[in-house]
Amino acid sequence: MMSAISKDKGGPGIDLGLVINKIPFVGIAKDSSISPITDPSQFKGMTVVTYPKPMTNYTMFKKVLKNANLEDGTDAKIIQAAFGTELGPVEVGKAQIAMTLEPTVSNAVLTQGYHEVYSYSKEWGEFAFTGLMTSEEYIDKNPEVVQKFMNGMQKSLNYLRDPANTEGCVEVAQEWFPDLSKEVLTSAVNNMQKEDVWPQNAAVSDEAWQKHLDVRVELGDLSKPIPVSEGANNTFAQKAFDTLGTK
Q1: Do 138 and 237 have their domain in common?
Q2: Closest by Cα among 234, 218, 222, 200 to 6
Q3: What is the three-state SS of 86-115?
Q4: Residues 14 and 132 in one domain
Q5: Which domain holds residue 48?
Q6: Do 218 and 28 meet the contact criterion of CB atoms below 8 Å apart?
Q7: By C-alpha distance, which of 202, 172, 166 is closest to 186?
Q8: Residue 86: its pLDDT value, please?
Q9: Residues 132 and 18 in one domain
Q10: Same domain, 56 and 9
Q11: At residue 62, what are phi and psi to the nearest 5 degrees?
């Protein structure tokens, strides 16, 4: 939504496509007495850690509370923590649940005694989460570079989505997360594939865009709706998919 927020303020920026088209955050708890959350009303009385506003992790949990008629600070509480520090409040007993990403989820579950209790992706389905953004000026001046980039992105999505490539994905992940075990990274890749968070086609669908847009407008991050036609240029992603995509 950064392109939409920029447009709303009269600035530049446009999405070229999606890297993640579901909300991959998972709620994890260390207290074994906390059961899986099947209804948002179960968050009543809990303190939950998210990333800082206006990141989607925070925005979506605010929406979850609103849907359950729960008031932040009264019925439940949100602690905003910087990326990489989200487990801290749980560890010291100041929060019960942390909303976090892979591979933190798998590492916490396999090595630190946590368990999964909530998933945004199961509740929200297709959702414009992580996009590739550039400026309209750059596209106008470098269309060939943009197309080559999106071709590479499509090849990457093909690779990531195929379970046969799990070992290769883990090898790449080990370069970025050298302190995590192969077991943890394998679990992380498997979970991402299972939740289908990597899109088949990077082009931003109207459904995925609208779901996120509606939340941002409702919570005040956007003053008005921005149509996907203004916030995204799907030309390059669609051409890449038509040429290279796995149907």
Answers
A1: yes
A2: 222
A3: CCHHHHCCCCCEEEECCCHHHHHHHHCCCE
A4: yes
A5: 26-124
A6: no
A7: 166
A8: 97
A9: yes
A10: no
A11: -60, -40
